[in-house]
Design a protein that fits this description.
The chain is an alpha+beta fold. The chain is built from four helices and four strands; from the N terminus they run H-H-H-E-E-H-E-E.
């Protein structure tokens, strides 16, 4: 049996194997470190989100309790009263929007030749507009005729003269009339056109 080495230059590959194993180990360590950092980051994020979710759930439960307490303190009758007040306010707002042009058209068609209007003051009341009309006339009969003409339009109710006095300088009659004005139910005198009664 030959015990001598017959090669002139023996080849030992231990160094290359070690280098390969070292490179593999470095790669494994790098991946392990990367995975560990990712796991830590996601673990922190998950903890933060879980904490925030529990806070939000607690806040939502608190808000639900507050809402239940508020609902328990609300009286349904108060809601009904508030709704009725709101409807009444809306009705008054609708009544406020009347046409001055239409009012003066009514005056033009009902005013006798010897009567002159000097002032008109509207006031909102629950039942409608209350008009205070100041007129100047030669005779009481002229004012009476004007009042009759206004009543015939059906837009003026409760028409009365609240003050009559004679102007000493001109000799004319100064009258102050008051009437409930309901433009939505009347018609303009002489036109024959009526307006529908509101429901």
């Amino acid at each position: 049996m030959i015990r001598t080495n017959l090669s002139t230059r023996p080849f030992y590959n231990e160094r290359s194997v070690r280098l390969i194993l070292l490179a593999v180990a470095v790669v494994v360590v790098a991946f392990t470190a990367f995975n560990a950092s990712r796991v830590l980051r996601y673990s922190r994020s998950d903890t933060r989100l879980a904490t925030q979710a529990s806070r939000d759930e607690a806040r939502a439960a608190d808000l639900r309790q507050q809402a239940a307490r508020l609902r328990a303190t609300v009286d349904p009758r108060q809601i009904d009263f508030a709704s009725a007040d709101a409807r009444e306010a809306n009705d008054l707002i609708e009544r406020r929007t009347f046409s001055w042009t239409e009012l003066f058209n009514r005056f033009e068609t009902t005013l006798p030749d010897d009567v002159r209007i000097t002032a008109v003051r509207p006031k909102i009341e629950k039942e409608g507009f209350v008009l205070t009309i100041s007129v100047v006339a030669r005779r009481v009969d002229d004012v009476s005729e004007f009042m009759e003409n206004l009543e015939q339009t059906d837009a003026f109710r409760n028409l009365l003269s609240i003050e009559d006095r004679q102007d000493e300088q001109t000799g004319q009659l100064l009258s102050i009339l008051q009437a409930l004005y309901l433009p939505e139910v009347g018609h303009i005198a002489g036109t024959g056109k009526t307006r529908p009664t509101p429901r």
